[in-house]
Design goal:
With 749 residues, the chain is mainly β. The chain is built from six helices and 58 strands. Helix 1 (2-21) packs across helix 6. The longest helix is centred in the C-terminal third of the chain and has 25 residues, at 724-748. It is flat.
Length: 749
C-alpha cells in the first residue's frame, strides 16, 4: 500500500509536470466560440456596452425582414410574420448592408472580436426607400454604422468584409490593433466624424480604401500611427481603382487647429497616401514632405483624384496651373518654405515668367510644363503682394531665397538681377529643361548659385520639350555652379559662363555628357564662341572650372565647330583686351581645350590671328591642374614616389615597386620582381623563417631510462560550465525527491 501510494503521488506529480511542459501549440486547436450577429448584440447589451469577446467570432449572413407596418402594406416577403431577428440589415447602400447599432447609447467599447460577414441573397421591406431585393453578388460588405453619441473603441478586432463606421461619434473614435480584410469598393473605416481619432497598429489588406474622415466636426487631434496598408485602393471596379487612397479628408470639417500626426505607417501596392479635399488642412497642419519622411509609402503623397481638374496643390488649395499656384504662393507671403505639389505626370500648363520671390520647393512628381517660355522668373520685375501682379509700386526681390525643383520636366529659370540678394537654385531630376539664364542687370552683385543634378537639356528639332538650342545654362552673375549627372544634346553653347562681376566664381562639372554640341550645323550664329563649355571672366573676376569624368561625344560625321570642347577666354574681335582669370582643373576626361584672347577672330567671324589662340588635346589619363598665369597646366609627373615595394625573403619573392606620380597616381614605370633569398640553416632550422633543413641529420644521444609504470589517472570531471548534460536528469531526480520528502514528512508527523 505504501508503494502504491507513493506511485500514485508520483504519477500525479508527473502528470502535472507534463501539463506544464506542454508546448503552446498543444492548445492551438482549441475552437473559438462562434455566434451570430443577433447574439453578439445581446451580449454587448448585457455587458453594458463595454464588451470583451475574448476571441469570439461573430459570423452571419443578412437575413430578410419586414418593418413596414403601414396599413395596406404589401410585404415583399409575402404573407406572414417576418420579424427582424437581429441578423437583418436596416439599409442597403451600394455594396453595403448597413447595420445601425446602439442608437441612444453613450460610449461603446468592443475588444477581441472577429467579425465575418458572409454575403447572401436577402430582402428588406422597410418604411422607407431602402426596401428591395438584393443578391449576394450585389451586397458583399456589412457596414457597422454606430449611432451612439459617446466614444467608440475597437481594440484587437478583426473585420472580414465588414466596414466600421462610427457615424454619430463626435468625441473620440479609436481603432487599436485591428485588422480589416477584403472590403470591396469602400473605405474600411468610414464616416469618422469624431473630434479626436486614434487609429494605430492596425492592418488594412485588400480594401477599396483605408480611412475616411467626414462630417462638420471641428477636429482637435488625429493620430494615425504604426498601421500597415497592403493592396489598398485596388479592390474595386476598374473605374474606382486608385481613387480613394489610404486616408481621405473630405471637404467637410475644420482642421485648422488640429494636431494631425501620421507617422510610422507603411504601404504596398502603389496607392496614394492622402486624398486631401479640405481647405482648412494647411501645410502647417499636414506637411506632405514630412508625411513622406515619417512613413514608408509605396505611392505618392496625394492621390490623383485629389486634384480633380486641377494640376497643382499648395497649402490646402488646388490650382489649375503652376503659374496660378506661384501666384497663390506669392500672395500668401509664406513665412517658411512654400511646398508646391504637382499632380503626378500631369501637364501643369503654359508658363512664361512665373514669379518667384520666396523660399520654395516644387515637387514635380514627373509632371511637365508644356508651353510658353516655361520659366521661373526671379528679381526682374516689381510685383504687388496683394494682387500678385506686376506693379511699379511693388517690390523686387526683398530677401535671400532658395528654390528647389524636383522631377518637373520642361522647367526653366530666368532673371535680370535688380538686387544684391542671394538666389540659390537647385534642380533635381528635371528632364528636357528649357534653360537656366541669369544676367546681373542693374545690380552686378546679385549672387546666383545654381545646382543641376540628374537633369537633361535636348535641343534636337524633334524633342518633345525642346531646350533653347543656343544656350542652356548661362550666368554672368557671381555665384557657384555645380552640375552633376546631367546631359546636354545638340546645344550650341551648353554651358556659357561670362563672369561680369568681381570676386571668385567656382564651377564644377561631374559626370556630365555633351552629345553633338557646338557642331557647325547648330553654331552658325555662335561660331566665334560656340563650344560645349565656354568660360569667360571680365577683368577683376576669377572663375575656376573643375571637370571630372565628363564626356564630349559626336555622332558619326559630326565634328566640333572649331573652338574645342572647352573654350577658355574670349577671342572675338571686340572682346576686352584685358580679361579676368579663368582656371581649369580636370581629370578622367578626354577633351580638346582651347584658349583664346581678343583678336583671334576678326570682324568677319573668321580666324584673324592664330597666335591669340592655342589648343591642347587632353587624354582621359591626364591630370590638368589650375594655373592662374596660364589657365592650366598638364601635370608633368615631376613629383614621383615608389609604391608597392616589397623585400624578398626566403619564402616569397620581392618587388622593386612602381614609380608613380605623387600628384595624379599614374604609373610611370613598373617595378621588377626580386628572386627569393636562400635559407640560412642552423641546427636544421632556418633562422629567418623556421623552415626545416631537409638534409639535416640530428646527433644521436643516449636513450633515457625506462619510466616506471605510473598510477592510474583519476577520472576527469566536466569542465566548468559543462553541465548541460546533467540538468535534465538532475531536475527529474530533484522533483521526485521533493515529492517524496513532502510525503515522508507528512507521514512522520
Amino acid at each position: 500500500m505504501k508503494l502504491l501510494r507513493r506511485l500514485a503521488q508520483g504519477g500525479i506529480l508527473a502528470a502535472l509536470l507534463a501539463l506544464v511542459l506542454l508546448p503552446s501549440s498543444a492548445f492551438a486547436n482549441t475552437p473559438s466560440r462562434v455566434i451570430d450577429f443577433a447574439t453578439f448584440l445581446k451580449e454587448v447589451e448585457n455587458a453594458n456596452y463595454s464588451y470583451d469577446g475574448q476571441g469570439v467570432t461573430v459570423e452571419w449572413s443578412p437575413s430578410s425582414a419586414c418593418t413596414d407596418n403601414r396599413p395596406g402594406h404589401t410585404c415583399l416577403l409575402g404573407e406572414g410574420t417576418h420579424t427582424p431577428d437581429g441578423n437583418n440589415a436596416q439599409r442597403r447602400q451600394g455594396n453595403n448592408a448597413q447595420y445601425q447599432l446602439f442608437s441612444g447609447k453613450s460610449a461603446v467599447s468592443i475588444k477581441n472580436v472577429t467579425f465575418t460577414f458572409k454575403p447572401a441573397d436577402f430582402k428588406l421591406c422597410m418604411n422607407s426607400d431602402w426596401r428591395g431585393t438584393f443578391t449576394a453578388a450585389e451586397v458583399v460588405n456589412a457596414e457597422l454604422q454606430l449611432l451612439n453619441t459617446g466614444d467608440v473603441t475597437f481594440e484587437g478586432c478583426t473585420f472580414n468584409r465588414v466596414i466600421a463606421s462610427p457615424y454619430s461619434c463626435t468625441a473620440k473614435a479609436s481603432f487599436i490593433g485591428c485588422s480589416f480584410n477584403d472590403v470591396y469598393n469602400n473605405y474600411a473605416i468610414k464616416d469618422v466624424h469624431a473630434a479626436v481619432a486614434n487609429i494605430s497598429n492596425s492592418v488594412f489588406t485588400n480594401c477599396g480604401g483605408g480611412i475616411y474622415f467626414e462630417g462638420s466636426t471641428t477636429r482637435t487631434a488625429i493620430d494615425i500611427t504604426g498601421n500597415t496598408f497592403s493592396n489598398v485602393d485596388t479592390f474595386a471596379p476598374e473605374d474606382k481603382k486608385f481613387t480613394r487612397g489610404l486616408v481621405q479628408f473630405s471637404a467637410n470639417g475644420n482642421y485648422a487647429n488640429a494636431a494631425v500626426k501620421i507617422s510610422g505607417n507603411t504601404s504596398t501596392g502603389g496607392a496614394g497616401a492622402i486624398r486631401q479635399l479640405n481647405t482648412s488642412i494647411s501645410e502647417k497642419v499636414l506637411s506632405l514632405d514630412v508625411l513622406l519622411n515619417n512613413n514608408s509609402f509605396d505611392g505618392s503623397a496625394l492621390t490623383d483624384s485629389s486634384f480633380g481638374a486641377n494640376a497643382v496643390y499648395y497649402d490646402g488649395a488646388y490650382y489649375k496651373t503652376l503659374m496660378d499656384a506661384l501666384t497663390g504662393v506669392f500672395t500668401s507671403s509664406p513665412k517658411g518654405t512654400a511646398k508646391v505639389y504637382c499632380k503626378p505626370k500631369a501637364d501643369v500648363g503654359a508658363m512664361t515668367h512665373g514669379h518667384v520671390a520666396d523660399d520654395m520647393v516644387i515637387y514635380g512628381n514627373g509632371a511637365y510644363v508644356s508651353t510658353g517660355e516655361r520659366d521661373l522668373e526671379i528679381d526682374t520685375y516689381k510685383f504687388n503682394r496683394n494682387t500678385g501682379t506686376q506693379d511699379v509700386a511693388g517690390t523686387f526681390l526683398d530677401k535671400d531665397i532658395t528654390v528647389t525643383v524636383k522631377e518637373l520636366d520642361g522647367i526653366a529659370a530666368w532673371g535680370e538681377r535688380n538686387t544684391a540678394h542671394t538666389v540659390n537654385l537647385a534642380f533635381e531630376n528635371c528632364k528636357n529643361m528649357q534653360r537656366i539664364y541669369f544676367t546681373n542687370g542693374a545690380n552686378p552683385n546679385g549672387k546666383i548659385n545654381i545646382t543641376l543634378d540628374g537633369c537633361s537639356f535636348d535641343g534636337s528639332p524633334d524633342a518633345a520639350l525642346k531646350a533653347n538650342a543656343n544656350t542652356t545654362v548661362y550666368s554672368n552673375s557671381p555665384g557657384d555652379i555645380f552640375i552633376k549627372d546631367t546631359t546636354f544634346k545638340q546645344i550650341s553653347v551648353a554651358l556659357n559662363i561670362n563672369h561680369k562681376s568681381t570676386g571668385t566664381q567656382n564651377i564644377t562639372l561631374d559626370n556630365c555628357s555633351f552629345n553633338d554640341c557646338a557642331t557647325p550645323e547648330i553654331s552658325k550664329d555662335t561660331k566665334t564662341y560656340g563650344a560645349p563649355v565656354r568660360i569667360v571672366a571680365q577683368k577683376g573676376a576669377v572663375t575656376n572650372l573643375t571637370v571630372k569624368d565628363c564626356e564630349f561625344a559626336y555622332s558619326e560625321g559630326k565634328t566640333n565647330c572649331g573652338n574645342g570642347d572647352i573654350l577658355l577666354g574670349d577671342g572675338r574681335h571686340d572682346a576686352a583686351k584685358d580679361q579676368g582669370v579663368v582656371t581649369l582643373s580636370m581629370n578622367g576626361t578626354e577633351a580638346s581645350v582651347m584658349k583664346q584672347k581678343t583678336g583671334f577672330y576678326g570682324h568677319d567671324g573668321q580666324v584673324a590671328d592664330e597666335s591669340q589662340g592655342s589648343k591642347t588635346e587632353i587624354s582621359k589619363d591626364d591630370l590638368v591642374k589650375p594655373n592662374v598665369d596660364d589657365n592650366f597646366v598638364v601635370d608633368d609627373h615631376s613629383k614621383t614616389k615608389i609604391v608597392g615595394a616589397k623585400e624578398a625573403t626566403c619564402t616569397s619573392k620581392g618587388y622593386t615597386g612602381d614609380k608613380v606620380c605623387s600628384v595624379c597616381g599614374k604609373v610611370l614605370e613598373h617595378g621588377k620582381e626580386i628572386a627569393e633569398l636562400n635559407h640560412t640553416y642552423e641546427n636544421g632550422v632556418c633562422t629567418l623563417c623556421g623552415a626545416k633543413d631537409p638534409d639535416y641529420t640530428p646527433t644521436k644521444e643516449p636513450s633515457q631510462q625506462a619510466q616506471k609504470p605510473g598510477k592510474p589517472s583519476k577520472p576527469t570531471l566536466p569542465a566548468t560550465g559543462d553541465v548541460a548534460a546533467l540538468v535534465a536528469p538532475l531536475s527529474t531526480v530533484g522533483v521526485a525527491l521533493i515529492g517524496y520528502a513532502a510525503t515522508r514528512k507528512k507521514r512522520i508527523r
